[in-house]
Amino acid sequence: MKAADTLVLPLDGALVFFDVAGTLVEADARLNHRRQTILCQLRQRVKRLVLVTGQPFDDPQVQEILSVCRPDEPDKLVAYTTRGGLRLTWDNDAFRKDLTYLTNTRLEAALRRMIKQEVAQVLEARHLHPLIPVRCIDEVAVRVNLPPAERPSFTAALSARFQAMKMAQLQVTAEGRTSVFVMRRGVGKRLAVQYELERVRQEGIAAAAFYFGDEIAMGNDREVLGLPGVAIYALGPCEPVPPGARCRTIGQRPDDLYHVLEASLATPPPAARRLPVVCLSLGGTKIAVGALTVGGSFLASDEIRWRESPEFSNLLEDVEAACFCDTLARHVDAFLRQRRYTWSDVGVLGIAFPGPQDDARWHSNNLNRAFRGGVALEREMSAALARLDAAVVPQVRVVFDAQCDAGGEVYHPEGRLRSAGALTLPATATVLNVASGIAAGFVCDGKVLVSDQDFRTRVHHRYDGGAGQLGRHLWYHPDERQWTYHFCPRGRTPDIEPPAIRMTERLSGPALAARLLLRLGGQRLLPHPGTWTLSQVTPADVSDLYQVISKCDPERDLAFAARLVRSASRPVAAALLTWADEVYRGGEPLPVASCLRAFAMEVAADFAGALTAWMSAAGWERYGRYIILTGTVGIRFLASSDALPEQSFLGALTAGLPPGCRVERSRLLGASERECYLFLHQPAAKEAASAAGVSYDRP
Question: Which residue range is the domain that position 457 belongs to?
Answer without folding.
Answer: 415-503+606-671
